[in-house]
Structures are given as C-alpha cells and as structure tokens.
Amino acid sequence: MRSSASTPNPPERPIRLGVVVVGDDHPRKCTGRRLVRLGLASEVATAAPPGDRPVVLDPYADVPLSVADRDRAEAGGLVAVDCSWNRLSARHANGLPRTATVRGAVARRLPMLIATNPQHFGRPGELNTAEALAAALVLLGRPSEAEALLAGFAGGPAFFEVNRERLDRYARARSPEELTLAERLAFASR
C-alpha cells in the first residue's frame, strides 16, 4: 500500500466557460456560438442562477483579470459576452454595461493583447470571444486548456505566438496591480 505522500493529486477540473450570445455577429463567424456548438462552452442566459458568481470579461472593467481571480473562476466559471466590437461602445454608452447582464458576476478586463483572428488580425485589444477566453485561461494558470480551446480556430495557434511574451509577463503577475504594471511595461518598449 502506498503512503498518502506518494498519492498523486487528482487532475484539476477544467474551468467552466460560458458565453452570453448577443447575436450581433454573423452566425458563421461567431466564435462564441461555435464554442457552444462544439461543447467547449455553454450558453449563459442574461441572469445566471443564484450562487453562480462567475468572472465576466468586460473590456470596460477597471480591474484586470489576474491569477488572483483563479479561485472565483474555478468556483463560478468564466463568462464572455459575444457581441460585435462595432456595437460594443454604443451599448456601453447607452447605459448597458455588458457585465450587468450576468447576476452576481465580477467584471474583469483582459490586459492588452493582439488579435490574430481573420476579422481583426493585428488589432490591439479586438479579440474574438474564443481568443478572449483562451487569454483568460492563460492568465488564470490554465495554458493547456487555453491551447485546446483555440486549436480548431483560424489564427488560434498564431494567437499564442504573437502574444507569447505578453501572456508570459501577464501570467507571472500575482495581483491586478502587478498585472497593470506588466501591461504598461509590455507596451512601453514597443
């Protein structure tokens, strides 16, 4: 009989991914719908069940996502709102912040990254839903889940190549403050 000291730890359960599908994008180009269709994420209604306190990715949030959010994401999941970048600022300006659609959620923004999807290739910050969730998984210490998530998407592998240095720097940050500093440093030398 082996001692408990030699018993391996059970594998981590994947972080549950959710997508609020707004429906702005062309259905065939919508990565959020594709994630749901492939069973990689579940569609989230505008009001999450009580007790589900997910981390919602919101480009207008003040606090960046960091490893400090890991416990909350592991317990409540990670949610992205799939809507058009062309309409996002108008929605926000009209008093409809995207995180308000998911009850009990905490809003976190991603640090600056470069999109590699065909619609926004090379544009800073304009990630599609799949890229955003993958980046969040890397920041939460789940790089293998992130790579598996983007494996079947156009530009998926390139996302990690183009953003490797930034993602590595951001993933080392232990707090939102450290991540904000890492973000400034990542773009100061450019």
Quick take:
The chain has 190 residues and is of the alpha/beta class. It has seven helices and five strands, in the order E-H-E-E-H-E-H-E-H-H-H-H.
Protein described:
- The protein is α/β, with parallel strands linked by helices and 190 residues long.
- The chain has one domain.
- The protein is 38% helix and 9% strand.
- It has 7 helices and 5 strands.
- Strands 2-1-4-3-5 form a 5-stranded parallel β-sheet.
- Helix 2 (70-76) links the parallel strand 3 (55-57) and strand 4.
- The radius of gyration is 17 Å and the shape is globular.
- It starts with 16 loop residues before the first strand and ends with a helix.
- Residues 91-100 have low confidence and may be disordered.
Task: Give the arrangement of secondary structure elements.
Blueprint lengths: L16 E5 L9 H7 L4 E2 L11 E3 L12 H7 L1 E5 L2 H9 L12 E3 L20 H11 L3 H8 L5 H17 L3 H13 L2
Parallel strand pairs: 1-2, 1-4, 3-4, 3-5
Ends apart, CA distance between termini: 57 Å
SSE string, helices as H and strands as E:
EHEEHEHEHHHH
- Radius of gyration, CA atoms, in whole angstroms: 17 Å
Outline the low-pLDDT stretches: 91-100
Name the assembly state: single chain
The helicity comes to: 25-40%
Indicate the overall shape.
Answer: globular
Tell me the domain tally. 1
Secondary structure: number of strands:
5
Percentage of residues in strands: 5-15%
Record the strand order, biggest sheet.
Answer: 2-1-4-3-5
